[in-house]
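Problem: given the chain below (231 residues), write out its structure.
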Amino acid sequence: MNYTEIELQELKDDVSQMWRLVLSQLEKAKQALLSGDVEVAQEVMSREKRVDAYELKIDSDCENYIALYSPVAIDLRLVLSLIRISITLERIGDFAEGIACHVVEEGGRRPAAQLAEDLQLEKMFDTLLGMLSDSFVALESENTKISGRIIARDFEIDKLYHSSLGVLTAYLRQNPGDILYGLKLVLIIRKLERIGDHCRNIVEEIVFYVDAKVLKHGGKKKAEAYPQAAE
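Solution.
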């Protein structure tokens, strides 16, 4: 392995470490929201600076690599993808922090058990964690065969998000005193929906790196490339 390959591997290692941290942040945000655990929420908030630091370091190191070695073909695609993936991971970290902030601001209040079940909050979190974990595996293994299944789960998240609006509307009609809390829950669920979009963006970056295919804004072409995502 030559020096440039070593530096490329170090870049991938930094992204992997950032990825594990963001996965942990999302898992803890889930725990904090569903259990009303303020201490866990504060831990998520305190670790957000580490997520930001990773993003800044990876961005700087990738730019330096391009300037020093002028990579081409797959190496260039890898570096560009790592930059965009780190930016996306940082945004997911922001959403996890936002959920944690909600828990702290509400003093540990958690959604009523029946409401949480009707909103399928745990399912949304678990689906997102699965998308993020599988995307990590896809990058590590450079295997894009599971990309379609990951993208399909973003459609599932979208459905859960839209159905949650009806659930909350019905709940607030019966509990008008909870309107402010209900509106905050809408914002939380919207954050989860956006995390799904970002997970899909990560998958698209991996496909760009490995297969040299651009899926962004693909519309019909994307559906044709991954028919299971449209089901």
